[in-house]
Design goal:
Number of helices: 6
Number of strands: 13
Low-confidence stretches: none
Mean pLDDT: 94
Strand content: 25-35%
Largest sheet: 7 strands, mixed, barrel
Order of helices and strands: EEEEEEEHEEEHHEEEHHH
Distance between the termini: 43 Å
Oligomer: single chain
Strand order of the largest sheet: 1-8-7-11-10-9-13
């Protein structure tokens, strides 16, 4: 075993209208008691309101570290009560691991399911609408407190309290935090971008993003 954590909670959500602006979304999620199925398109009982940017096999499950909420509460003390498990629209809350200790391409055994870290999460308009301030999106980008999306390699059953074990790590030089920092556009050497274009486990969309950024750097654009 390479790294280990615990599944602190499992969340699912149904499509509903936000009280703040009326948009239809399944961002708001609640904890599920007992075993829950995970399959290649997500967590059983969970929905996505905008399938163009959410869900699908490369964003089947969204995980967030339990330790991450403290940073949000410290940065936004006036709305600290909004930051706790479920606040990010996450399916899995992971205790003991975070963006620095989880890597792109990591294969993870959680419950009886086998999942793989596929990409970082980027903030969206629904996230800022739920939290109540556009500053939240900038804070996620700047801080790297983004969590990570998982693809499902083997369907299975998960329950809060299950082990969350990293069993394979093809990219030891690529913690989630490193990709999150590069996504801001402030970092990223030609060599690092070239690595990303073929990085095992990284989604094709992010490989293409890296290829475009690499072309710009090489072309001086």
């Amino acid at each position: 075993m390479i790294a280990s954590g615990k599944l602190a909670a499992v969340h699912t959500g149904k499509i509903a209208r936000l009280a703040s602006d009326g948009r239809r979304t399944a961002f708001v999620k609640t904890a599920v008691a007992g075993p829950v199925g995970i399959h290649p398109l997500g967590v059983e009982g969970d929905q996505q309101g905008n399938l163009r940017v959410h869900g699908g096999p490369e964003k089947a499950v969204y995980a967030y570290p339990l330790s991450g909420y403290a940073g949000w509460r410290a940065e936004f003390p006036e709305i600290a009560d909004r930051f706790g498990p479920g606040a990010m629209g996450e399916n899995l809350v992971v205790d003991g691991l975070d963006e620095s200790s989880v890597h792109i391409g990591d294969t993870i055994r959680v419950g009886t399911a086998l999942v793989q870290v596929a990409q970082i999460r980027e903030p969206c308009a629904t996230f800022t609408a739920v939290i109540g301030t556009a500053k939240a999106a900038r804070a996620m980008t700047k801080s790297g407190r983004c969590g990570w999306y998982l693809r499902v390699l083997e369907p299975g059953i998960v329950t809060a309290g299950d082990d969350h074990d990293v069993i394979e790590r093809p990219n030891p030089g690529w913690p989630v935090a490193r990709l999150a920092a590069m996504a801001t556009g402030k970092t990223g050497t030609v060599e690092a971008l070239a690595e990303l274009t073929v990085l095992p486990g990284l989604t094709p969309d992010w490989q293409e993003w890296a290829a475009a950024a690499l072309a710009r750097q090489r072309g001086g654009v």
